[in-house]
Structures are given as structure tokens and as C-alpha cells.
Amino acid sequence: MAASAYEHALSLLTARPYTARNLRRKLAQKGFTAADVDAAMERLLGNGLVDDKRYAAQFARGRLLGPGASKRRITQQLYQRGIPRDLAALAIETVIEEEAVDLEAVVEKDARRKAASLAGLEPIVIRRRLYAHLARRGYGIDEINAVLKKVLKAE
User: Fold this and answer.
1) What is the CATH code of the structural domain delimited by 5-47?
2) Cα dihedral 63, 66, 70, 71 sign
3) pTM of the shown model
């Protein structure tokens, strides 16, 4: 017997959280009708099992406190997952405030971790690779140059 769209969504949500847009897409890809998908999503949203605001806050918390990423990069990643930019920005600011995140310290920690993995290379190569690493994380030129001065001076 085939599972309903709601049951399939529940099984997906047991593995990991989804944004409303991504869950809707997964259900459509599975072949459920638009009416079934809409009914399942309405029920999930009504029960609070899918909550984009909560998803955005959890995602931002993980990125800011974990491997490190800029506010711009986190906003971009959330937008790609279907979270509006204003909701993403609000979630990021809330996490920064609640967790008392020092953004400069996050950048510096990330840079020091990467610099340690580059030990033994020529200083110019270290600088170039460290700059590229931080740029991929979404940090701005001013932030990168400031942290490079601190990290490379200490090396």
C-alpha cells in the first residue's frame, strides 16, 4: 500500500529538518498530486512540524557556532533553501544576540584553524590560500585583511 504524502513527509522529517519549499519539492518529486502535497503541507505547517523560522535559526546557529561562515554566506545558503532574506537576516541577528557571538572571533578562529593546516608552506602561499578560504566563507575584504594581519603576524 502506498503511503500518503503526509506520511512520506513525516518519514522525511524524521531524518532531518526541511524548509517548507524543499519539503514541498521532495513530495512533488515523489509523484504526489499538487492537491495531496498542499493538504500535507497545510497539516504539517498547522502542527508546527515544518517551521521555516525555526529552521533558519537552527541553521544559523550551526553555521555561526560551528565551522564559521559570514552573515552574508549564511543568508545566501538559507535563501537557496527557500527562506526569505528578511527572515534569514532576522534569524542570524537573533542567534548572534542570544549566543553573544563575536563575529571577529569567529573569523579569527576559522583563519587560525586553516593556517594550522597550511603550516610548512611558503608565507605567500599561506596568505593566498587563507585569503581564498575566507572569501569562500563569504567574508568581506576588510574582514579578511584585518584577520590576516592578526593571524599571520602571530605565525
Assistant:
1) 1.10.10
2) positive
3) 0.80
